Amino acid sequence: MHEFSFFTTRNEEMVDLTKQVQKIVNIIKQSKLDVLTSLSNMVPKKVNYKHDAVDGNASAQIKLAILEPSETLTFKK
After folding, report:
1. What is the pTM assigned to this prediction?
2. Whether the Cβ atoms of residue 45 and residue 58 lie closer than 8 Å to each other
3. Which of 39, 53, 56, 61 has the highest count of CB atoms within 10 angstroms of its CB?
4. How do the domains of the chain map onto residue ranges?
């Protein structure tokens, strides 16, 4: 989990968090290739999946079921 702090000086204020969020996104993107390689090793494309007869993307669907991709931003007061 990655964290950063920011402060406001008024009750209603807009704060640009672009730089802080971009740093975290860059860290996450660095591990993307490792995740894709690991998933490809676990779920190879060249297998006779029944779902491939439907649209040819069974391995992608299985990887999605394993990974359940999401990102959550939590704000603390």
Report:
1. 0.52
2. no
3. 39
4. 18-67
